[in-house]
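Field notebook, page 282. I keep forgetting to write these up properly, so this time I am using the form the group agreed on. The chain and the ligand, Isopentenyl phosphate, are recorded exactly as supplied. Prediction of the bound pose follows.
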Amino acid sequence: MNLRYMLSRIAHGQFMGRVIIKLGGGLITDKQQYKTALKDRIDSVSRVISEIIDMGHSVIVIHGAGSYGHIEAKKWKISEGLDSEISENQFSAIDTIQRDMDELNSMVMESLRGVGISCESFPPRDWVNGIGIGFAGDVSRFERNSEDIVPVSFGDVVPVIGEKKFGILSGDHLMVRLANELPDVVLCVFLLGDSSGLLTGPPDSDSSVLIERWSKSQGLVGEHDSAIDVTGGILLKLQCASEIVESSDHVWFMDGRVPNRMLEVLSKGETIGTRIVRDNQS
Ligand code: IP8
Protein backbone atom coordinates (compact mmCIF):
# COMPACT_ATOMS: atom_id res chain seq x y z
CA MET A 1 0.00 0.00 0.00
CA ASN A 2 1.16 3.51 -0.85
CA LEU A 3 2.64 5.03 2.37
CA ARG A 4 1.05 8.47 2.03
CA TYR A 5 -2.33 6.82 1.47
CA MET A 6 -1.81 4.47 4.41
CA LEU A 7 -0.85 7.30 6.76
CA SER A 8 -3.82 9.38 5.70
CA ARG A 9 -6.12 6.44 6.46
CA ILE A 10 -4.57 5.81 9.83
CA ALA A 11 -5.18 9.48 10.70
CA HIS A 12 -8.90 8.88 10.13
CA GLY A 13 -9.05 5.53 11.89
CA GLN A 14 -7.83 2.11 10.91
CA PHE A 15 -8.02 1.36 7.19
CA MET A 16 -9.94 -1.85 6.64
CA GLY A 17 -9.60 -2.23 2.88
CA ARG A 18 -11.38 -1.22 -0.28
CA VAL A 19 -14.94 -2.20 -1.14
CA ILE A 20 -16.15 -1.84 -4.74
CA ILE A 21 -19.90 -1.85 -5.23
CA LYS A 22 -21.87 -1.96 -8.48
CA LEU A 23 -25.46 -0.79 -8.24
CA GLY A 24 -27.02 -2.65 -11.14
CA GLY A 25 -29.23 -0.70 -13.54
CA GLY A 26 -32.02 -3.20 -12.81
CA LEU A 27 -31.76 -2.35 -9.12
CA ILE A 28 -31.86 1.43 -9.34
CA THR A 29 -34.24 1.86 -12.29
CA ASP A 30 -37.28 0.19 -13.79
CA LYS A 31 -35.60 -1.19 -16.90
CA GLN A 32 -38.82 -1.27 -18.93
CA GLN A 33 -39.89 2.36 -18.38
CA TYR A 34 -37.73 5.10 -19.90
CA LYS A 35 -36.02 7.12 -17.14
CA THR A 36 -37.72 5.66 -14.10
CA ALA A 37 -35.36 5.77 -11.12
CA LEU A 38 -36.11 3.77 -7.96
CA LYS A 39 -34.90 6.32 -5.42
CA ASP A 40 -35.86 4.34 -2.31
CA ARG A 41 -33.59 1.52 -3.41
CA ILE A 42 -30.71 3.94 -4.07
CA ASP A 43 -31.24 5.48 -0.62
CA SER A 44 -31.22 2.16 1.19
CA VAL A 45 -27.94 1.19 -0.48
CA SER A 46 -26.49 4.62 0.42
CA ARG A 47 -27.34 4.07 4.10
CA VAL A 48 -25.44 0.76 4.10
CA ILE A 49 -22.50 2.34 2.26
CA SER A 50 -22.27 4.92 5.03
CA GLU A 51 -22.07 2.08 7.59
CA ILE A 52 -19.34 0.40 5.52
CA ILE A 53 -17.36 3.67 5.57
CA ASP A 54 -17.91 3.97 9.33
CA MET A 55 -16.34 0.50 9.69
CA GLY A 56 -13.14 2.00 8.20
CA HIS A 57 -13.46 0.79 4.63
CA SER A 58 -12.87 2.93 1.60
CA VAL A 59 -15.65 2.55 -0.97
CA ILE A 60 -15.94 2.97 -4.74
CA VAL A 61 -19.42 3.13 -6.26
CA ILE A 62 -20.18 2.15 -9.85
CA HIS A 63 -23.69 2.19 -11.21
CA GLY A 64 -25.38 0.80 -14.28
CA ALA A 65 -27.65 2.57 -16.74
CA GLY A 66 -30.96 0.71 -16.66
CA SER A 67 -33.69 2.68 -18.41
CA TYR A 68 -31.49 5.81 -18.51
CA GLY A 69 -29.19 4.23 -21.08
CA HIS A 70 -30.19 0.91 -22.56
CA ILE A 71 -33.48 1.89 -24.22
CA GLU A 72 -32.06 4.71 -26.39
CA ALA A 73 -28.77 2.86 -26.95
CA LYS A 74 -30.67 -0.16 -28.24
CA LYS A 75 -32.90 1.94 -30.49
CA TRP A 76 -29.97 3.63 -32.23
CA LYS A 77 -27.45 0.71 -32.12
CA ILE A 78 -24.95 2.77 -30.14
CA SER A 79 -23.02 -0.29 -28.95
CA GLU A 80 -22.28 -1.24 -32.57
CA GLY A 81 -20.55 2.07 -33.32
CA LEU A 82 -21.05 4.56 -36.14
CA ASP A 83 -23.60 3.59 -38.78
CA SER A 84 -23.42 6.15 -41.61
CA GLU A 85 -27.09 5.63 -42.51
CA ILE A 86 -28.35 6.76 -39.12
CA SER A 87 -25.38 8.79 -37.91
CA GLU A 88 -27.34 12.00 -37.25
CA ASN A 89 -29.82 10.13 -35.09
CA GLN A 90 -26.97 8.32 -33.37
CA PHE A 91 -25.17 11.56 -32.43
CA SER A 92 -28.34 13.06 -31.05
CA ALA A 93 -29.06 9.79 -29.14
CA ILE A 94 -25.55 9.95 -27.63
CA ASP A 95 -26.28 13.47 -26.34
CA THR A 96 -29.55 12.25 -24.87
CA ILE A 97 -28.02 9.15 -23.26
CA GLN A 98 -25.12 11.11 -21.73
CA ARG A 99 -27.51 13.75 -20.39
CA ASP A 100 -29.81 11.03 -19.00
CA MET A 101 -26.85 9.21 -17.42
CA ASP A 102 -25.75 12.48 -15.80
CA GLU A 103 -29.24 12.79 -14.35
CA LEU A 104 -29.16 9.26 -12.93
CA ASN A 105 -25.65 9.85 -11.63
CA SER A 106 -26.78 13.06 -9.90
CA MET A 107 -29.50 11.08 -8.12
CA VAL A 108 -26.94 8.56 -6.89
CA MET A 109 -24.60 11.37 -5.77
CA GLU A 110 -27.43 13.22 -4.01
CA SER A 111 -28.46 10.06 -2.23
CA LEU A 112 -24.89 9.44 -1.03
CA ARG A 113 -24.55 13.06 0.09
CA GLY A 114 -27.92 12.77 1.84
CA VAL A 115 -26.40 10.27 4.29
CA GLY A 116 -23.30 12.40 4.80
CA ILE A 117 -20.95 10.81 2.26
CA SER A 118 -18.60 13.09 0.27
CA CYS A 119 -18.33 11.86 -3.28
CA GLU A 120 -16.86 12.79 -6.64
CA SER A 121 -18.05 11.66 -10.05
CA PHE A 122 -15.77 10.43 -12.86
CA PRO A 123 -17.91 10.05 -16.03
CA PRO A 124 -16.11 7.56 -18.33
CA ARG A 125 -16.59 9.75 -21.43
CA ASP A 126 -14.06 12.17 -19.86
CA TRP A 127 -11.23 9.68 -19.28
CA VAL A 128 -11.91 6.42 -21.18
CA ASN A 129 -11.25 5.46 -24.78
CA GLY A 130 -12.47 2.10 -26.02
CA ILE A 131 -14.78 -0.54 -24.65
CA GLY A 132 -14.51 -3.88 -22.85
CA ILE A 133 -12.02 -4.58 -20.09
CA GLY A 134 -9.14 -3.50 -22.35
CA PHE A 135 -10.28 0.14 -22.52
CA ALA A 136 -7.59 2.84 -22.42
CA GLY A 137 -7.91 4.92 -19.27
CA ASP A 138 -6.07 5.31 -16.00
CA VAL A 139 -8.04 3.91 -13.07
CA SER A 140 -5.56 5.20 -10.48
CA ARG A 141 -7.76 8.32 -10.10
CA PHE A 142 -10.11 6.05 -8.10
CA GLU A 143 -7.44 5.47 -5.51
CA ARG A 144 -7.05 9.17 -4.89
CA ASN A 145 -9.57 9.31 -2.07
CA SER A 146 -7.32 10.13 0.83
CA GLU A 147 -9.86 12.61 2.22
CA ASP A 148 -12.54 9.95 2.42
CA ILE A 149 -14.15 10.97 -0.83
CA VAL A 150 -16.07 8.15 -2.49
CA PRO A 151 -15.31 8.02 -6.24
CA VAL A 152 -18.39 7.27 -8.34
CA SER A 153 -18.60 6.22 -11.99
CA PHE A 154 -21.03 4.46 -14.31
CA GLY A 155 -21.65 2.74 -17.64
CA ASP A 156 -21.50 5.35 -20.41
CA VAL A 157 -21.14 6.10 -24.11
CA VAL A 158 -17.41 6.52 -24.69
CA PRO A 159 -15.20 7.48 -27.63
CA VAL A 160 -13.56 4.65 -29.56
CA ILE A 161 -10.54 5.13 -31.83
CA GLY A 162 -11.10 4.05 -35.44
CA GLU A 163 -14.14 3.70 -37.67
CA LYS A 164 -16.58 2.87 -34.88
CA LYS A 165 -15.98 6.26 -33.23
CA PHE A 166 -18.06 5.43 -30.14
CA GLY A 167 -19.34 2.51 -28.11
CA ILE A 168 -20.80 1.54 -24.76
CA LEU A 169 -18.60 0.90 -21.78
CA SER A 170 -20.46 -1.16 -19.17
CA GLY A 171 -20.07 -0.47 -15.48
CA ASP A 172 -19.21 -4.19 -15.21
CA HIS A 173 -16.06 -3.59 -17.27
CA LEU A 174 -15.10 -0.74 -14.97
CA MET A 175 -15.51 -3.14 -12.04
CA VAL A 176 -12.93 -5.54 -13.52
CA ARG A 177 -10.30 -2.87 -14.07
CA LEU A 178 -10.80 -1.29 -10.65
CA ALA A 179 -10.74 -4.60 -8.79
CA ASN A 180 -7.72 -5.90 -10.67
CA GLU A 181 -5.62 -2.72 -10.63
CA LEU A 182 -6.29 -1.06 -7.28
CA PRO A 183 -4.66 -2.35 -4.10
CA ASP A 184 -6.35 -3.67 -0.94
CA VAL A 185 -9.67 -4.74 -2.44
CA VAL A 186 -11.43 -6.80 0.24
CA LEU A 187 -14.89 -7.05 -1.31
CA CYS A 188 -16.42 -6.61 -4.73
CA VAL A 189 -20.21 -6.70 -4.92
CA PHE A 190 -22.66 -6.75 -7.81
CA LEU A 191 -26.02 -5.64 -6.41
CA LEU A 192 -28.92 -7.12 -8.38
CA GLY A 193 -32.47 -5.86 -8.54
CA ASP A 194 -34.52 -8.99 -9.08
CA SER A 195 -32.94 -11.91 -7.24
CA SER A 196 -30.90 -12.95 -4.23
CA GLY A 197 -27.93 -13.83 -6.44
CA LEU A 198 -27.28 -16.14 -9.36
CA LEU A 199 -30.23 -18.49 -9.81
CA THR A 200 -30.61 -21.82 -11.59
CA GLY A 201 -33.40 -20.32 -13.74
CA PRO A 202 -35.36 -17.10 -14.35
CA PRO A 203 -36.01 -14.97 -11.21
CA ASP A 204 -39.78 -15.15 -11.68
CA SER A 205 -39.89 -18.97 -11.78
CA ASP A 206 -40.77 -20.91 -8.58
CA SER A 207 -38.35 -23.67 -9.51
CA SER A 208 -35.32 -21.31 -9.61
CA VAL A 209 -32.98 -21.69 -6.66
CA LEU A 210 -29.98 -19.72 -5.49
CA ILE A 211 -26.53 -20.94 -6.52
CA GLU A 212 -24.47 -20.24 -3.39
CA ARG A 213 -21.02 -20.64 -4.97
CA TRP A 214 -20.13 -20.33 -8.59
CA SER A 215 -16.87 -20.74 -10.46
CA LYS A 216 -16.14 -20.52 -14.17
CA SER A 217 -15.90 -24.28 -14.63
CA GLN A 218 -19.62 -24.54 -13.75
CA GLY A 219 -20.37 -22.75 -17.01
CA LEU A 220 -22.44 -19.67 -17.66
CA VAL A 221 -25.96 -19.68 -16.24
CA GLY A 222 -28.76 -17.27 -17.14
CA GLU A 223 -29.87 -15.35 -20.16
CA HIS A 224 -28.87 -12.08 -21.73
CA ASP A 225 -32.10 -10.20 -22.31
CA SER A 226 -30.92 -8.70 -25.59
CA ALA A 227 -34.36 -7.11 -26.15
CA ILE A 228 -33.51 -4.60 -23.40
CA ASP A 229 -29.87 -4.80 -22.50
CA VAL A 230 -27.16 -3.53 -24.88
CA THR A 231 -24.25 -4.66 -22.75
CA GLY A 232 -24.65 -8.15 -21.41
CA GLY A 233 -26.89 -8.63 -18.37
CA ILE A 234 -26.10 -11.49 -16.01
CA LEU A 235 -23.79 -13.26 -18.49
CA LEU A 236 -21.51 -10.23 -18.73
CA LYS A 237 -21.53 -9.92 -14.94
CA LEU A 238 -20.46 -13.57 -14.62
CA GLN A 239 -17.66 -13.13 -17.13
CA CYS A 240 -16.48 -9.99 -15.35
CA ALA A 241 -16.76 -11.57 -11.91
CA SER A 242 -14.68 -14.53 -13.03
CA GLU A 243 -11.91 -12.11 -14.08
CA ILE A 244 -12.13 -10.31 -10.74
CA VAL A 245 -11.78 -13.46 -8.59
CA GLU A 246 -8.29 -13.88 -9.98
CA SER A 247 -7.28 -10.91 -7.79
CA SER A 248 -9.99 -10.64 -5.08
CA ASP A 249 -11.16 -13.30 -2.64
CA HIS A 250 -14.62 -11.92 -1.97
CA VAL A 251 -16.68 -11.36 -5.08
CA TRP A 252 -20.43 -11.57 -4.59
CA PHE A 253 -23.74 -11.27 -6.43
CA MET A 254 -26.29 -10.06 -3.90
CA ASP A 255 -29.82 -8.79 -3.65
CA GLY A 256 -29.53 -5.00 -3.72
CA ARG A 257 -32.99 -4.78 -2.16
CA VAL A 258 -31.41 -6.19 1.02
CA PRO A 259 -28.15 -4.23 1.02
CA ASN A 260 -27.23 -4.93 4.65
CA ARG A 261 -26.06 -8.34 3.45
CA MET A 262 -22.88 -6.48 2.44
CA LEU A 263 -22.30 -5.81 6.15
CA GLU A 264 -22.67 -9.53 6.91
CA VAL A 265 -19.95 -10.45 4.42
CA LEU A 266 -17.65 -7.80 5.86
CA SER A 267 -18.21 -8.92 9.44
CA LYS A 268 -18.67 -12.70 9.05
CA GLY A 269 -17.44 -13.57 5.55
CA GLU A 270 -20.82 -15.10 4.72
CA THR A 271 -24.32 -14.03 3.69
CA ILE A 272 -27.23 -14.95 1.44
CA GLY A 273 -26.04 -14.48 -2.14
CA THR A 274 -23.75 -16.07 -4.70
CA ARG A 275 -20.07 -16.08 -3.90
CA ILE A 276 -18.00 -16.16 -7.08
CA VAL A 277 -14.84 -18.20 -6.56
CA ARG A 278 -11.76 -19.27 -8.51
CA ASP A 279 -11.90 -22.83 -9.81
CA ASN A 280 -9.27 -23.89 -7.29
CA GLN A 281 -10.46 -21.70 -4.38
CA SER A 282 -11.43 -23.54 -1.17
O1 IP8 B 1 -25.68 -0.87 -17.37
C1 IP8 B 1 -24.42 0.53 -19.83
O2 IP8 B 1 -23.80 0.27 -18.59
P1 IP8 B 1 -24.24 -1.00 -17.72
C2 IP8 B 1 -24.26 2.00 -20.21
O3 IP8 B 1 -23.34 -0.93 -16.52
C3 IP8 B 1 -25.24 2.52 -21.19
O4 IP8 B 1 -23.95 -2.23 -18.54
C4 IP8 B 1 -25.13 3.94 -21.52
C5 IP8 B 1 -26.17 1.80 -21.79
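OBSERVATIONS:
- The helical segments are 3-12, 25-28, 39-54, 70-75, 87-114, 171-181, 233-244, 261-268.
- The first strand starts at residue 18 and ends at 23.
FOLLOW-UP: compare against the apo run.
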